[in-house]
């Protein structure tokens, strides 16, 4: 379960320096006020739950992710993680200013804070009581995985066969993530059928995801680009997260009927 834990949703990425397709049409991607709720499964067995939200503020945006394990997974490996990202939005660019990650996994706790200094193309990482580390020579458009995930959703056209290379800073590691747009397909989800766009994300040395297999994400093929399913293979089976409730920030909401 640890491979997908801390958001996955992250999932990910895309080219974030894009322009609005037209002032007369709403821009694609997440709207401020969006809230998403997921059930996480390990090879079909309940493993955890996660929430993901995007809020606007006078300085820009705030992303928050909470994740916890449940059932037998929680018994053998309890997880309770929280991530908060503060950043500025420039058109469809989501540029992180700070990235706070509180991890409580398997009885071990760790707090990591990454602060970006874009003028110097640097970032400073503070982890627990360790001396701060300065990461230098960063690309000017580098951001954290979660901000990159929202920026990808804002790309005007998701065309099968296309791919994007993205500079990402994941804690103290800077790398170029690759995201491939695979195909469009109908997908049956806990919330019903969706027309979707399937993408594969390759995070290479990501500290968050820790796996070699690509992360598969199915986005709704509409202006919202809702991530309705996330899945990745692990040494024993697979881990998947299914969208079970949302408020899209545009006035629409849906949840599983009980």
From TrEMBL:
Top-rank taxon, per record: Bacteria
* This protein's UniProt keywords: Signal
Residues of the signal sequence?
A: 1-23
What is the name attached to this protein's record? DUF3108 domain-containing protein
Please report the organism this UniProt entry assigns to the protein: Magnetococcus marinus (strain ATCC BAA-1437 / JCM 17883 / MC-1)
The uppermost taxa in this organism's lineage are: Bacteria, Pseudomonadati, Pseudomonadota, Magnetococcia, Magnetococcales
